[in-house]
Amino acid sequence: MLSKVSGFFGIAFLAMSLVACGGDSSDGDSSGGQDSLMFSQNEAAQMLVGVYDESYEVDGVIDELYFEITANGEEIVYDYLGDSFDLGPNCYLKETLGRLTPQGDDQYVFTTYSEDDPESYLIELVIVDSDNGELLRFTYIETLVGDFEPEPGEQVVVEYPKTNITVSDFTPICDF
């Protein structure tokens, strides 16, 4: 069975996203290190750099979400809190959730920055062309560290449209 889900990289990262929104994640590892170097020097990985739309609507309620893959492989989420889902202030919550490390053959390890509950997943990321532009196709392969496991026989595949939005468009950033 093929499952299409919304949310930051789909259901595979639901638990990680909840931890990040709860404030248990750090703002990231700005030092970069070897993982950053591997990502920045990998031509296939550099094709992933950009801002993607992961917004969704359920029963007329819209959750406006975007994520950025940076040149050093970090995953940064921008959640607009003034939408009909969050009903909050007119600002974007910015969360640096983790880092991608290339493994070859379009496979990456995504590791969260959570010190309390670190998680790692082996995933496949590829850019595919569609009639409406480029899409980032995420395919869950396996959990390396963490509790997520799909239902037996379920394949988790999600596609996110690449946008022309730049991170400077996400203003104002929430100051809390």
* Count of individual helical segments: 3
Order of helices and strands: EHHHEEEEEEEEEE
Estimate the global geometry from the Cα principal axes. globular
Strand count, sense and barrel status of the largest sheet are: 9 strands, mixed
Strand content range: 35-45%
Radius of gyration: 15 Å
Multimer state = single chain
Helix residue percentage: 10-25%
Q: Which structural class is indicated by helix and strand composition?
A: mainly beta
* Average pLDDT rating: 84
- In what order do the strands lie side by side in the largest sheet? 1-11-10-9-8-7-6-5-2
**CA-to-CA gap between the ends?**
41 Å
Low-confidence stretches: 1-31
The tally of strands reads 11
Short recap of the structure:
The chain is mainly β and 176 residues long.
